[in-house]
Amino acid sequence: MARTVTTSRRTVNTVFAGALSLLMFFPVLWIVILSFKTEGDAIKAPFEILFNTGWTTESYGAVQARSNYFKHFSNSLIISLGSTFLGLLIAIPAAWSMAFVPAKRTKDVLMWMLSTKMLPPVGVLVPIYLIFRDLGILDTRSGLVFVLMMINLPIIVWMLYTYFREIPGEILEAARMDGASLREEVIHVLIPMAIPGMASTVLLNIILAWNEAFWTLNLTAAKAAPLTAFIASYSSPEGLFYAKLSAASIMAIAPILIMGWFSQKQLVRGLTFGAVK
Amino acid sequence: MATKASRSAARLMISPAVVLLLGWMLVPLSLTVYFSFLRYNLITPGTNPFVGWENYYWFLTDPSFKAAMANTLLLVGGVLLITVGGGILFALLLDQPMWGQGIIRIMAIAPFFVMPTVSGLVWKNMFMNPVNGIFGHIAQGLGVQPLDFFSQIPLLSIILIVSWQWLPFATLILLTALQSLDQEQLEAAEMDGAGSLSRFFYIMLPHLARAITVVILIQTIFLLSIFAEILVTTNGGPGVSTTNLTYLIYVSSLLQFDVGMGSAGGVIAIILANIVAIFLMRMIGKNLDA
Amino acid sequence: MNATSLLTLRRGLVGASALVSVGATAALAEEITIATVNNSDMIIMQELSSQWEEQTGHSVEWVVLEENVLRQRVTTDIATGGGSFDIITIGAYEAPIWGAQDWLVALDDLGDDYDYEDIFEPVRNGLSANGTLYAVPFYAESSFTFYRTDLFEMGGVEVPEEQMTYDEFAKIVAMLHDPDNGVYGTCQRGKAGWGENMAFVGPLVNAFGGRWFDMDWNPTIESPEWQAAINYYVDLMNNYGPPGATANGHNENRALFADGKCATWVDATSAAGYIFNPDESSVHDMTGFFQAPKQVTDKGTGWFWAWALAVPNSSQKVDTAKEFLAWSTSKEYVELVGESKGWVAAPPGTRRSTYENSSYIDAAPFAVTVLNSILAANPADATKDPVPYTGVQFVAIPEFQGIGNYVGQQISAALAGQQTVDQALENSQRFAVREMTKAGYIN
Questions:
Q1: Interface contact B113-A260, CB threshold 8 A
Q2: How far from chain centre, in Å, is Cα B81?
Q3: Is residue A237 reached through a cis peptide bond, with omega within 30 degrees of 0 on the bond before it?
Q4: Is C329 helix (H, G, I), strand (E, B) or coil?
Q5: Are A153 and A91 in contact (CB under 8 A)?
Q6: Which stretches of chain B sit within 8 Å of chain C by CB?
Q7: Which residues of C240-278 are buried (b: 16+ CB within 10 A; e: fewer)?
Q8: Which of A157, C116, C288, C442 is the most buried (most CB within 10 A)?
Q9: CATH number assigned to the domain with residue range B56-289, chosen from the 4 options 1.10.940.10, 3.40.190.10, 1.10.3720.10, 3.40.120.10
């Protein structure tokens, strides 16, 4: 199995892959650097910035003074976690029944669910806005939790469905023979086996919900506004603004970036959508 | 194998998801269809009379409509081409033995975690700005005229930004698929004297087919409604050169506040999206069933 | 089912969020939500509002957005009666239209201390509908030409006493254009939008003798006057403007000018407070100003605009909102900014008392010129030929936003070289005819 690889080949691979990855990562790295510069320094030539300027955290202070970061952060957290877990609650039974009791129409139902994701959100903003107004849930976290749950539900169902299908039916049969009820079957057999898949479903959906920038911006004002709204107030310049924009950007993406990095293995393991047999 | 009882239990278990999604689709959709037959402008409130197909006429004859269709196709197609092509190459490279695989992979997937608004703003200002951006500085350092990305190659600039965001996703899925490839098969082919190119085309690519369809399906779903990146960089311009269908609907319903016409556009976009969906489903259905 | 599940969901989560928001303050204290733009004057207001919160016990939630996004959010909310905001920031274009539609709370009763007479009459009129004030001005502006005194001196250019023509202006710009040393002859707005590039283009067209509509509301965008004006604009910018001009709006140009990259810039007088502020600008002691140029006429060559605060009818906290307005647009507020942020940064153009204050006149060398420009701008008579509308750089009808944005897009495409000026104007004319037909002005 293990191929013998010469050290020189390994070195060449490392250099190439390292260089390309660094290139992909560079924009993020660059805003980290700029966020610790003064506004005046942040617009200088790249070499000047790297080797000829000092470091400061004043931009972070300026951003925090203008907008309450922690309010937006906790909104983002509640909305993305809430919508993901609510979605999971509804998707697990659906995916279970699709995977283990397939009917003739199962595939069509799945594909139909995915197709609901293709509706352009702008096309239905005004109707949704009116409905939200009448229900009194404009600018509430619960309203956003619901909307984001709905737009990500098809993805959750699909991902879970593909994992569940990989679980051999015989194991479930055996459990049933032993007299396990449906509920026990799901809780004691299915879920433990599907944990890796569920972990990556959860992670992917948290990422998608965290970064969703249409509904979160249009259905909130102040109270429920998450980090996407926070960053929107830095989108046009007031004088020199690169350092402040960088700091605000880092504050908005850091939580999800760090989560993504730490859970990279879990995320990747399940991120196959049934593409790997 | 499934008993009658378990079938009805299954139906019960799937119903919350189906009913919710049906409601989520039908309620706004029927309102949208209804609005599309009204003269309904947010800033001129009145009685909103029924006007028949007028809004559809206005939307379809909108001078920007054709351009928006073309831009949508170019945007989706361009990004798919770059991310799938680049993703395969990148995945092949990352699949090779190397030192520090963990840290290299962490750097490579970072763009996927970045909010679309943030990536749009960062590319627009810190990179593509011809005066203060990095590319501008580099051009000045080399003594050439800096490229003015958003007025000279606006659509391509957007395609590049979006591709940067989606390349990691494609790479990850393709890499996972690649790692499940039977090494012995590859080695056997190598012994039979198959060159690396033919190994790639006859063994790896067929193995990747499923993964590629999955990447195409998922990305298309998201790419059809690209919005934030356009909003924060070009606002659909210059002219309509970066206006896609989603953005055009936004312009009608939220910048001109013509909800009637915007709704007509929404209905048209939904029909088009469903055509694409059926096409994709056929393709993916075939590949996933195996 | 959908609606019911929504309600259940709501109940569940309201309970949860009630736990979070227990930290509420005193008995009568209310929390108001203010939507505003990210202009420097507004950011100062945001900083200083903590003083108001301390005085009154109320608290303020801020929604700070970029101008286009703000306009879209606020319009959606107010038109659907969403009630998300208690105070909104609107301009001289929206105030009369929205006031007439009964979307805004009348603001005639902010108390005797408020001193309405102190607010300049044209500003008050610009924010009223049918004689009722619907928005109170935060700052008001006209447009004039900023120029670099050092560069003019070096080039031996004399600034004429009289209003110069755009032809003369172009000659000066050509002479001072020096991109090798990082100085562009002129910076003008290129970013598409009725409040962005069209704010410059509108008065330019007025100067060249053009108008948006004739007396029967037929669009006249393909007229020779428009052709001349837009060709002038595109040539000027392509020859002597900075690269990437199609992305530059007011804020971007202000940053470029403050950074010393522009020799001339025709834009909002309100930017003077920033350009002359030594903390913000590297050219604060080498900037002068003169009137925006004229061409075949001097009518409508400087625009009129005011940013104002208003209370939507859908607000649940009208009284507290009014209390905030009475504070943030008062004489005392102007003084507060002057004392704490420096007089040069005081909100300009709204109150006579500001211009009677010697501290302000001393700190702001531009004060008198700004005031004269604002008082001279006449939205009711801004074109060479008669028109059925009012407005200098805009047309005060609801349909104008859509038309202005589209024409702005077309002109920015012409500026980017993606189409000719003729094409841009042809498309614009066709679009304007379409929109006016749709709205029933013409058949």
A1: yes
A2: 11
A3: no
A4: coil
A5: yes
A6: 19-20, 23-24, 27, 41-45, 58, 63, 124, 129-131, 136, 145-146, 148, 150-152, 154, 231, 234-241, 251, 254-258
A7: bbbbbbbbbbbbbbbbbbbbbbbbbbbbbbbbbbbbbbe
A8: A157
A9: 1.10.3720.10
Structural domains in chain A, sorted by start: 1-66+236-250 (no CATH), 68-233 (1.10.3720.10)
- C123 touches C333 (CB < 8 A): no
Across the interface, whether the CB atoms of A124 and B105 are under 8 A apart is answered no
User: What is the distance in angstroms between the CA of the first residue and the CA of the last residue of chain A?
Assistant: 20
Question: DSSP alpha helices (H): ranges in chain A?
Answer: 7-35, 39-42, 46-52, 58-66, 69-100, 106-116, 125-135, 141-166, 169-177, 182-184, 191-211, 215-218, 227-232, 242-262, 264-270
Which position has the token pair 């999206």?
A: B273
pLDDT of residue C17: 43
As a whole number of angstroms, the distance between CA A17 and CA A3 comes to 19
pLDDT digits (tens, 9 = 90+) for C289-308: 999 999 999 999 999 999 99
Tell how far CA C336 is from the center of its chain: 23
Q: Are the C-beta atoms of residues A31 and A246 closer than 8 Å to each other?
A: yes
Contact C339, C127 (CB under 8 A): no
Global pTM reads: 0.87
Domains delineated in chain C: 28-141+305-363 (3.40.190.10), 143-303+387-438 (3.40.190.10)
Per-residue pLDDT of chain B (290 residues; tens, 9 = 90+): 456 667 777 778 888 888 888 888 888 889 999 999 988 888 877 778 888 898 898 888 887 899 999 999 999 999 999 999 999 999 999 988 888 888 898 899 899 999 999 999 999 989 998 888 899 889 988 888 888 888 889 999 999 999 999 999 999 889 988 888 878 888 888 888 878 888 888 888 888 888 898 898 889 888 988 988 998 888 887 888 999 998 998 888 888 888 888 899 989 988 888 888 778 777 766 665 53
Chain C residues with CB-CB distance to A86 below 8 A: 9
How far A218 CA sits from the closest chain C CA (Å)? 7
Tell me the pLDDT tens digit for each residue of A112-159: 888 788 777 887 888 888 899 899 898 999 999 999 999 999 989 988
Contact between A172 and A182 under an 8 Å Cβ cutoff? The reply is: no
Does B42 contact C192 at a Cβ distance shorter than 8 Å?
no
pLDDT of residue B37: 93
Judge if ipTM > 0.95: no
Q: b/e string for A87-124 if b means 16 or more Cβ within 10 A?
A: bbebbbbbbbbbbbbeeeebeebbbbbbbbbbbbbbbb
